Amino acid sequence: MKSVSPDKQLQMLTKFIEVYCGKKHRTADEQLCDECAELLDYAADRLTKCPMDPKPKCKDCTVHCYDDAHRARIKEIMKFSGMYFVKRGRLDWLVKYFLN
Ligand SMILES: [Zn+2]
Question: Domain locations in the chain?
Answer without folding.
Answer: 6-99
